[in-house]
Design a protein that fits this description.
9 helices, 42% helix, alpha/beta, binds pyridoxal-5'-phosphate, eight-stranded parallel beta sheet
Amino acid sequence: MIDPAPHTHLDSIRTRIAAAARIARRKPEDVTLIAISKTHPAETIAPLIAAGQRVFGENRVQEAQAKWPELIANAPDIRLHLVGQLQSNKADDAVALFDCIHSLDRPSLVTALARAMDKTGRQVPCFVQVNIGDEPQKGGCTIADLPVFIAQARAAGIPLAGLMCVPPAGIESAPFFALLGKLADDNGVAAGLSMGMSDDFETAIMLGATHVRVGSALFGARAPL
Ligand SMILES: *Cc1c(COP(=O)(O)O)cnc(C)c1O
């Protein structure tokens, strides 16, 4: 079902983000809300833009290419983040469209993104995605490989924004958020932590999230794929 008034959810999400930040003695403006608009059509997204939301996230390059150029033409200060797995052969398209990539997770993608950034001269900050629950079906660099992988990304000249994770479903996510923060400290990429979704973004903020990725709490439930 399409939610008739996603902007009313926006106010409440912003209030909850600010409250969580205050409890953690952080500044609300140090937490970026990424509105995850995957599967939702432009008509559903437009009210959020009208309400002042400027940072959006998509998980498929092709879907974003179809939806966003027109929306961005009307609001050029929109920033678009890619939060889904990226195939190396889409690296050029991703670098051209997105302002930030949250799914850098393997050496072949480092190579492809570094080449795309060289070619276009566009430097797109990337979060290294960590497979924080060691789940075989999920993307992300393993914790064991993380130090070497970060060194590879740095050597290739990729601008690193920090670390990102999607914890295992159905169990408490706080320990995984805490672990991601520790890994960021240990590896000297403490700048950003992309963690927290509709069900756990307040917990993530208390544990240091700088970017929360909120979809269904803003837009309502997505239609099944
Ligand atoms: C879909 C998605 C989200 C948003 O999930 P909600 O539970 O709808 O808030 C966040 N991060 C990633 C990587 C996603 O794919």
